[in-house]
Amino acid sequence: MSTQTSAPGDAVPQPLVVRTVPLDDLGGRGTPDPAGTPDPADLLDLLPTDAPLAWVRRGDGLVAWGETLRVEVHGADRFARAEDAWRAVLAHAVVRDEVRLPGTGPVAFASFAFDDDSPAGGVVVVPRVVVGRRGGRTWLTTITAGRIGAAPALADVVGPRVPPVAPGDVEYRDGAVAADAWQDVVAQGVAAIRAGEVDKVVLARDVHARTQHPVDVRWALHRLARRYPSCWTFSVDGLLGATPELLVRSEKGLVTSRVLAGTIRRTGDDAADMARAAILAHSSKDLEEHEYAVTSVARALEPFCSSTNVPDVPFVLHLPNVLHLASDVTGVLTAPTGDAAHPSSLALAAALHPTAAVCGTPTTAARALIARVEGMDRARYAGPVGWMGADGDGEWGIALRSAQVDADDPRALRLFAGCGIVAASDPAAELAESEAKLVPMRDALGADEPA
Ligand SMILES: C=C(O[C@@H]1C=C(C(=O)O)C=C[C@H]1O)C(=O)O
User: Fold this and answer.
1) How far is the C-alpha of 325 from the C-alpha of 403, rounded, in Å?
2) ipTM above 0.90, yes or no
3) Where is this region: Disordered (predicted)?
4) Which domain CATH number covers 361?
């Protein structure tokens, strides 16, 4: 069943029955499966064409499909409303979880707009079926309205494998701001920095794609996951991508955030790229950009944590298209007192969003500058995307290296990319960097067979 509600708490199916069973001895690699059921070793292979949900990295993670409940939220309190809705769902849930790992039991996927005023708002999807994998353990969760019945079996909830369909020819055209004109947007950002309005601002652009065939999101997901194994490949409500940036993971009182800022394009030549990595690691412009982003994350986490660990120097993250300065910031959540619980991963994501990696410093002025000069609605690009479990633990990425499929036209997509701008930024170089950041999604829509 699928229920639409914009008022959290409305129309929660009662009771909601959640069952998690292990799949450890089912369909493992090399196990002959007479029913032809896909191998859960590759989670993405399980997904149906329609509205696939995914959060995977290096073969682990969650895939899901079906909609037991969908909640749409809007406005500045969209995160809090989403959390209220999730709690209302849980209040009516009967849970039998035989695996008890992060990601087992009830799970919601969600994605949120970057901007408080965006019509894109946010969406929480409680799927009907979830298959998860973590450290060699695989499980199946079903979330249905009704009564507790027999333990679910994979063969009953997964259809025959329909191979992903290629998008065919893809036409690209300018988005809200043409590529050339976007250099003026960057120049306005630099001018605002020099005028003292902000220290850093992140400016983005979109590109429109039109595919020959309706987009089969799974085609793109497979390609993203294979080419960008260190990224989090995600799909929620038509927003898909492979982000290298983890806004926050919260697990058993431990929080982690992978902060990126400071980028250099790769050349394709390994020796030259090693030299570029060294240049990046010593570039004062990129180190400045990075410092703003790390500080914004550390400051936002501090009120929730009894201790935090902020690395002194970033490492260089190598991706096939770009190199980034990266820092893994960690913290221990302050132990709850009395009946209080830890803040949920979503509450932490709400407190962190938007970091200086995707907005700028100071936040309020950078937000206002973006709204004034960027010339587009970012929608859910650069907003939090991820999943959360019943205990509030979960993982939220920043929706970068991403595209949004038009809900009314499955052949139309918007691709997005943005760049951190500081006083020393050069508009032409930033345009080139934005092109490099569009590569993952362009390749994901490529015509050749997935490798
Ligand atoms: C805004 C994007 O990326 C962000 C900006 C970066 C930069 O300017 O160096 C690096 C990583 C991300 O934090 C994007 O990919 O669209």
Assistant:
1) 23
2) yes
3) 22-41
4) 3.60.120.10
